[in-house]
Design goal:
single chain; transmembrane helix; mainly alpha; globular; membrane; transmembrane; AA-Vitamin_Transporters; Permease of the drug/metabolite transporter (DMT) superfamily
């Protein structure tokens, strides 16, 4: 039985820490802007900004790897549709109708879906420590979301918005699993650039449909600042780090780091909203961290 992690895998695990922090911030910003900027407008301009920020770094590898993109064109198209178009647009849409508490709970299902889909459709085997880690980290997520009172789980009121958000979680699970099919020699920055380039026309069509239905944005300095944040940190930096992390440590281990989102959500609430850390926060965060450590172990 193999023991230990290589330096590349350890670096991959470290790269997976910032993405859930930036995505937790995206969740907070998305909720705050839902009354000012319609979801498809938010999604389109987020990725336009991301593409402009990424293009100076991505242009050369995009040109160099163009034959590889064409050879894997259907895979690149699928990644762009589920990871860039579908996931973010559906999340922003679902957050119009569902509470943050329900959204966090549904988001925590992503690692479970990655495990299940990987085992069911892609022949991925699960070792004992991955199962233990999944259970621990998911219990930690629920502890934080339910404020330590597990009886609240039965009182959650799921709605159409919850089903919409859950469908986004399904799309992200497939996005993570499909990343593994990309050959390692393809530059990840260029790959991210080509995915955004493919996605923007689809997002523009959704944006036009939203405008035809009468949904228009109400721009303000706060809205512009929020759009700048989500266009750079959760879009460019987080996606690149996550893509590299998946390539180095695998889809299952990478997916487990999504459970850090409620941990960072607590920290952001303390810093920006003046909330206080409660005992259930500490219990939940501990369970999440132990769960992630368990999945990083080899064998079992």
């Amino acid at each position: 039985m193999e023991r230990g992690l290589s330096k590349i895998q350890i670096s991959g695990l470290l790269l997976l820490i910032p993405p859930p922090l930036f995505w937790a911030g995206n969740f907070i910003v998305g909720r705050a802007m839902r009354g000012e900027v319609p979801p498809m407008t938010l999604s389109l301009w987020r990725w336009v900004i991301a593409f402009l920020c990424l293009l100076p770094l991505a242009w050369r590898p995009m040109c160099r790897d163009w034959p590889a993109y064409w050879a894997h064109r259907w895979l690149v198209l699928r990644l762009a549709l589920v990871g860039v178009v579908a996931f973010n647009s559906i999340v922003y849409l679902g957050l119009q109708w569902t509470a943050a508490e329900n959204g966090l709970l549904l988001n925590s299902f992503i690692p479970i879906l990655i495990l299940l889909f990987g085992a069911l459709f892609y022949g991925q085997s699960l070792h004992r420590w991955q199962v233990i880690g999944l259970i621990l980290s998911f219990a930690g997520v629920l502890t934080i979301i339910l404020h330590g009172d597990w009886t609240r789980l039965a009182r959650l009121d799921f709605s159409v918005g919850d089903l919409v958000v859950f469908s986004a979680m399904v799309s992200w699970a497939f996005y993570t699993l499909w990343q593994r099919a990309i050959p390692p020699q393809i530059d990840r920055i260029g790959l991210m650039g080509i995915q955004i380039a493919v996605a923007i026309p689809f997002l523009f069509v959704l944006y036009l449909g939203e405008r035809l239905l009468g949904y228009v944005p109400h721009w303000s300095p706060e809205a512009y600042a929020a759009l700048g944040y989500i266009g750079l940190f959760p879009s460019v930096i987080a996606y690149l780090l996550y893509t590299i992390g998946v390539a180095r440590v695998g889809a299952v281990r990478a997916g487990m780091f999504i459970h850090l989102m409620p941990v960072f959500g607590v920290a952001l609430a303390v810093i920006f909203l003046g909330e206080t850390v409660q005992p259930y926060h500490l219990v939940g965060i501990t369970a999440i961290l132990v769960g992630i450590w368990s999945t990083s172990r080899k064998g079992g």
